Amino acid sequence: MTTSRKIASAGVLALLAAAIAGCSTSGGSSGGGSRPAPTGVEGAWLDAKGTGLSTFQAGAFQTVATDTGQKLSDGTYILTGANSVQINGTSLIRQSPISFNCLLISANQLNCTSGTNQQFTLTRRSA
């Protein structure tokens, strides 16, 4: 696989991750002790190949390459249902708009479909 194709794939995965992160709701912190299990999409998500890390926080998402830290995409996300999120943004590699719809399948898995019907899965990154 060529470097540009890897970057493009990472960009798509990053966007998917961002979409999934948008499905969460934020809760208060419990102030010490063990961490509660993550809920919603807030947090960090890895693509299936481990090449893109997408972060969802307070309605914003971004994806970076895990090997270089280069920003691949950024944008916003909104919850469209209890377990669904819509992500819109820009692929910084291709300088073009991107959009994804994602479903939070479990606390650690987000299944996404791009506006061009590409499907990908994001997995919550361990803390």
From TrEMBL:
PROSITE patterns this protein is in?
A: PROKAR_LIPOPROTEIN
Kindly list the places in or outside the cell where this protein is found, as annotated in its UniProt entry.
Cell outer membrane
Alphabetically ordered keywords of this record: Cell outer membrane, Lipoprotein, Membrane, Palmitate, Signal
Specify the superkingdom.
Answer: Bacteria
Q: Does the keyword Cytoplasm apply?
A: no
What is the first-listed, main subcellular location in coarse terms? membrane
One short Pfam family name for this protein?
A: OMP10
Which membrane topology term applies here? Lipid-anchor
Residue stretches spanning the membrane: none
Signal peptide interval: 1-21
Q: Which family does it belong to?
A: Belongs to the rhizobiaceae omp10 lipoprotein family.
Can you name this protein?
A: Minor outer membrane protein omp10
* Organism (species): Aminobacter aganoensis
